[in-house]
Amino acid sequence: MPEKYHIETRPVPPRRPRIGKCGVVDWREDCARCHNCVKKACVFDRYRQETQYIRGLNEVDNLFFECMGCFSCVQQCTKGILALAANPAYERLGNSYWTPEIIQTTWTQAETAKIPVSGAGYRGKFTGPGFDAMWTDMSEIVRPTRDGIHGREYISTAVDIGRKSPLLTFNDDKLTAALPPLVDIPMPLVIDLMPLEYKINNLLPFMLAAAARTGILMLVDYRDWNLLGADKERHLPHVVFYLEAGAPLPPTEILRRTRLVEINDSSNIERRIGELKTIHPSIVTAVRIALDSRGIERATELGKQPYIEVLHLVSDINGNQIDAIRPRFVKDMVREVHNALVKSGVRDQITIMAGGGIALAEHLAKQIICGADLVSVNLPLLIALECHLCHTCQPRISCPAHMADIDAAYGVGRMTNLIAAWHDQLIEVMGAMGIREARRLRGEVGRALFFNELEEETFGRLFGTRKAA
Ligand code: SF4
Ligand code: SF4
User: Are strands 189-191 and 374-377 parallel, antiparallel or unpaired?
Assistant: First the structure.
């Protein structure tokens, strides 16, 4: 049996003061000095930590906001002088898609490499836009000793990237034709190019080192080759060069040490793929397609071409269709491309990678259920480094996360922890769904429930079809 895929992790504490959701306001002048003060009973020991924090304070504008909001001390104080206060800095994190909850849970995973646990049940909404409009069927969760990260059975998260033969033909027990090249990676995740507004050059070597440490791949614009640091040649098997239409190809000796290359969609991709295959016949080629108003049609058309091995479908950073007034969400667009290619009988021959809007580990699983073989991510790795996802990213001027000061141990450690936590969550989801292989999760919509479909089925015959907003 092959060795079990495992990512080594260790806790990597934050460099900056934590930005929690709430803190306790204490109106001390009315305090009765009770012997059994409720503050001593805080199960998270926050009051003692706050005192220590204040003693070592070196930035006066960062208050202590790490209360877990259990209300125990607030409700039990005999004089009623304790109150919970929301942290305005927490509420300013991210945007309407990358919510403060997503950013905070990413920080915790990057610190501990552990699966986030919300405690006494899920307290959030049961449906919403985007990935929140679908649920995975966890009915197999009744076998916790057998499944999941602690189970005895091996759940494989490995995937193959490339073109697959529709059939094998043999002559005298020998294959009559060579198999197309494939790249296998231990989990269905690659690190995508950073959006230009969040691209920070000094972080590129750390991202590549995290990709190498976890065995996954990282897309790098070839023009950034010189920014990849001293270990770039050693990490070449984990580099996927991204080439703009018409951009010069990397030198042959470098290209030949990579396994996958991505080119931007253009009118001459067949010729471009031909050039790359001439230099390096066993390289796998991916075509990046922007999910704009023509994206679905273009992907469906290209997916039927015999020279296509991988399609990389990319929405905007919030998972929305690019430049659309009423944008569709990435999971629905990928599902449409997947279904169209299934109908044409070619889906099993190509690989689909989907990017944009993947903010949590559950999104990874859901996007694969909607038809992608694997996903690409970028912003979660930046958030792992305590990024606030400011509306106007100004790393050199006033970056609250001090991105310019990051060292390798911290940067690589936090990104590795996040990838490990996502891997564990993928295994938990697959175990609970009764699926033993990530390859089999692809397109398994029978193992998911979609809010729109359930609503239509239940209420459609009474109230008619819901009108689009
Ligand atoms: S509300 Fe709960 S977690 Fe917060 S300080 Fe009071 S006892 Fe501790
Ligand atoms: S925290 Fe720094 S890197 Fe992150 S968005 Fe803000 S300015 Fe940019």
Answer: parallel
The C-alpha atoms of residue 389 and residue 38 are separated, in whole angstroms, by 37
| Nearest-CA residue for atom 4 of ligand 2 | 387
79 to each of 76, 83, 360, how far by Cα in Å?
A: 9, 11, 42
Q: Are strands 174-175 and 134-136 parallel, antiparallel or unpaired?
A: unpaired
Question: Considering only CA atoms, which residue is closest to atom 6 of ligand 1?
Answer: 73
Which residues in the chain show pLDDT less than 50? none
Buried b (16+ CB within 10 A) or exposed e, 262-273: bbbbeeebeebb
Terminal-residue alpha carbon distance, the chain = 52
* C-alpha span between 220 and 240 (Å, rounded): 6
The answer to the question of residue 422 being in a domain is yes
pLDDT of residue 393: 80
Which residues have CB under 8 Å from 454's CB, separation 6+?
none
Which atom, in ligand 1's list, is nearest to the CA of 84?
1
Q: Which amino acid is at 31?
A: C
One domain, residues 253 and 368: yes
Name 218's bridge partners.
191, 239
Q: Which atom of ligand 2 is nearest to the CA of 393?
A: 8
For residue 469, tell me if it sits in a domain: no
Output the 3-class SS for 154-192: CCECCEEEECCCCCCCEECCEECCCCCCEEEECCCEEEC
Altogether, the residues listed in the chain come to a count of 469
pLDDT value at residue 469: 57
**pTM given for the model:** 0.91
Which structural domain range is residue 36 located in? 22-92
CATH of residue 284:
3.20.20.70
> Is residue 419 within 8 Å of residue 7, measured between CB atoms?
yes
Taking the CA of 199 as reference, the closest ligand is 2
**204: buried, middle or exposed (CB in 10 Å: 19+, 13-18, 0-12)?**
buried
